[in-house]
Specification:
Two copies of one chain form a homodimer. In chain A, about 45% of the residues lie in helices and about 15% in strands. The termini of chain A are far apart. The structure holds a DNA duplex (30 and 30 nucleotides).
DNA sequence: CCACGTCATGGTAGCGCTACCATTTTCCCT
DNA sequence: AGGGAAAATGGTAGCGCTACCATGACGTGG
C-alpha cells in the first residue's frame, strides 16, 4: 500500500485553490473571495494571496467554478453565418466589449436553420450561460421557450419589433428597404427591381419595405422581383441581375438585398456597358466600406452592426449586474448613403 | 419576469444523472456509460435509459463533466481577426467539421497581438480543452510554451514550416508571393510594386517572396514597396495605390497583399482612367469569389481556407482518438488564377 | 459591563459528473 | 460439471470550486 497518495489521478498537477491557500497560510474560501470580491478581504491577506497566486501561476478552473456556482462565465452567441461580414461585425462588437471582462464567448452558427438553432440553444443552455445573444426575432416556438427558460438575460439583435423575449437591439429592415426604394423613386427611376439572395426573415422584411414603397407609388410589378434562397455572394449578384434583365429588359433600377449583390450588379453593368447611374440605378444594403470606393460609388443603407454588438453586451452586462435597463428595446436606426450609383 | 433568479443549490430544477438513474432503475454510472460508451451497456438498459432521458429532458452538464473527467469537450480556436474573410472561412471550416461532434468551440480574437494571444492561451488552457487550433507559427516564446504544455493536440494553421508545436496545416506565403510576382514578370510587367496593409508575419512572407522574384529578375527597387500596419480594407487599397503611384509614377504593375487591397487598386484605376491590364497589371491574394466577377476580373492566388479548417479538425480529432497522423505537416498549396487584370 | 450588530475569516457540504475499482453475471473452455 | 475469463453493472470517492453558515474579534450604545 502506498502511504503517499499520488497527486490526483487527473489534472496534470496544476495548482489548485488549496495549494494557494496553503502557501498563503489562509483558508481556501478566503482565496476564493480575494479573487472574486477583493473588497471583502483585508489588505494584508489580499497581498499575501496575490503573491502566492503569482508564485504558483494559479489560474482558477472555470469548470469547477461553474459547477459550484451554477453559473458559467460564458456568453452564448448565436448567428446564422460566420462568413457574412454583417454578422462578423456584430460578433466583433461583442468580442471587443467583452474582452476585459471575465466572460468567455461561446459562438454558434445556425446556418439559417431553425432546427439547428434549437439544437444549439439546447447545448448552450446546458452550460448555464451568463447571457445569450441571438440574431433575429423569428425563433421557432421551441427556441423561444428555450430562451425564456434560459434563466439568464437574453438579447435578440439585428432587428426591432414589439415583443422581444427579453431585450432587443437593432433596426427596422422594413424601413430600410422602403427608404432605399423611395430614394430610387425620387431619383426618377421607375422600373425598379428587387434582387435578393438568401431570403432570410430580414431580407423578407426589406422586400416588404420595397414593395410598400413601390405600391404606394403605383409602380409595383411582381415581375420586378428576383430572389433565390441560395447564399449571397458577388458572383450570384451578377447572375441574378442577368436573370432580372432577361425577365424585364426595361429595368432602370435595382434595390439589392445587400452589398455583395449590389457589387455583382455593378460589375455586370460595367461589363455589359450599361451606364450606371444613367441607365440603371443601384442601391445596396449595409454599406460595407467598399461601397464608397467602388467606381461608381454605390448608394447603400448604412447599418450599425458593430454598435449593435456593443449595445447588446452592455445591456446584458447591466442585466447581470441587476439593473434592468429601462429601455428593453433599442432601435439604432440606419442611414441612407447617397452616392454616384443613383445620381442622375 | 425575474430572469436572473439565482438557482437554488439544491434540487435546482434541471434533472441530473441521478434522476435519470432512478427513473430507469439503474445506477448513475450506468447512465453515464450509456451516454458516452453505449456499446458497453446492454441493449435493454440502453433502451430504458434512453426512455428516461427523453422523458425527463435530461441534458448532461458539460461543466460537471469537464470537472470530473479533467477534460472539456471544447476546441479552442485562436485567430487574429474575426472580420477578415480569410479567417472567417477557416473558422467556418472548423465549425462545419465539428458540428456533429460533441465538441463545442471557444473562439478567441487576438487582434494580431502576441500579448493578447498569450492572455487568451492562458484563459483557454485553464479550461483543459480537447484541442487547440491557432493561426500562424510566430507565437511568442511564452505562447509557444503554453501550447507545448497544453496537454492536448495543437494545430497551427494558415502557414507551413519546419517546426510546428505539434501539427500544422497551411501553405507557403513566400511561394505564393513569388508565384504572383513571377507571373507579372512573365506577363511583361517591369516596374512592379508591392502594396500591403497590416503587415503581419504572413504578409511579410509574401513580401519576401515578391522580393526574391524581383531580385532574381534584376527588377527590385525598394521604392516599389508600399506598406502600412493599418488594417486592410478596400478604401485603404485605393489610398495606398495613390501613394505608390505618387512615389513611383512609372509603376506598371502591382502585387497586392490581399484581395481587398487589389479591389481598391482596381477601383482607383477605373476612376483615374488607368487601363487595366494595359497600363497597370494587378494581382491579388486569396482569390475571394468577387475576383472572378470584377471587371476586369482580377488575377489572384487562390488559397484553401475552408479546407485548412476542415483538415485542422480532422487532424486534431485523429490525435484525440489516439492515432497520431503520420503526417504532422500538411501543405495544401495554392493556385495562381490568371485573369483579365494581367492579360496583356 | 453586557447585549448586539458588523467585519474578517474559516469549516463543511455539496455542485453533477466520471475514474477507479469491486461485484455480479454470463459464457466458454476443458 | 467446474474453473476462469470476460462482460455487465454498481459503489465510492473525489474533480476544484463556492454557497451557506459558524466563529471569533471588534466596536457601539444603553
Amino acid at each position: 500500500m502506498a502511504l503517499i497518495k499520488p497527486r490526483s489521478r487527473r489534472g496534470g498537477g496544476r495548482p489548485t485553490i488549496a495549494d494557494v491557500a496553503r502557501k498563503a497560510g489562509v483558508g481556501a474560501i478566503t482565496v476564493s473571495r480575494a479573487l472574486r470580491e477583493p473588497e471583502r478581504v483585508s489588505q494584508d491577506l489580499r497581498r499575501q494571496i496575490q503573491a502566492a497566486v503569482d508564485e504558483l501561476g494559479y489560474v482558477p478552473d472555470p469548470n469547477a467554478r461553474a459547477l459550484a456556482s451554477a453559473r458559467a462565465e460564458v456568453f452564448g452567441v448565436l448567428v446564422p453565418s460566420l462568413t457574412n461580414n454583417v454578422f462578423a461585425e456584430v460578433v466583433r462588437g461583442i468580442y471587443d466589449s467583452l474582452s476585459d471582462s471575465p466572460f468567455r464567448i461561446q459562438l454558434g452558427n445556425t446556418h439559417y436553420s431553425g432546427l439547428e438553432e434549437e439544437r444549439l440553444l439546447q447545448v448552450f443552455g446546458s452550460q448555464r450561460p451568463a447571457a445569450l445573444i441571438v440574431a433575429g426575432i423569428d425563433q421557432t416556438p421551441t427556441s423561444r421557450k428555450l430562451l425564456e427558460n434560459a434563466g439568464c438575460p437574453v438579447v435578440q439583435v439585428m432587428e426591432t419589433g414589439p415583443d422581444p423575449v427579453d431585450m432587443l437591439v437593432g433596426f427596422s429592415h422594413f424601413d430600410g428597404g422602403r427608404t432605399a426604394t423611395e430614394h430610387l423613386i425620387e431619383a426618377g427611376y421607375r422600373r425598379i427591381g428587387f434582387i435578393g439572395a438568401r431570403m432570410d426573415p430580414r431580407s423578407q422584411r426589406r422586400l416588404a419595405g420595397y414593395r410598400a414603397a413601390m405600391e404606394k407609388a403605383g409602380l409595383f410589378d411582381p415581375r420586378l422581383v428576383t430572389t433565390t434562397p441560395v447564399l449571397s455572394s458577388v458572383p450570384l449578384g451578377r447572375e441574378l441581375f442577368r436573370d432580372a434583365l432577361a425577365k424585364m429588359p426595361t429595368l432602370d433600377g435595382v434595390f439589392c438585398n445587400n452589398d455583395d449583390i449590389a457589387l455583382g450588379v455593378l460589375f455586370e453593368c460595367r461589363r455589359a456597358s450599361i451606364d450606371v447611374p444613367k441607365t440603371i440605378g443601384i442601391v445596396g444594403f449595409n454599406d460595407l466600406d467598399m461601397m464608397q470606393v467602388a467606381f461608381p460609388s454605390i448608394t447603400s443603407i448604412r447599418t450599425y452592426r458593430y454598435e449593435i454588438g456593443r449595445r447588446a453586451v452592455a445591456m446584458a452586462l447591466a442585466a447581470i449586474a441587476g439593473d434592468r435597463p429601462q429601455q428593453r428595446i433599442v432601435d439604432l436606426g440606419f442611414e441612407l448613403m447617397r452616392r454616384e450609383s443613383t445620381a442622375r
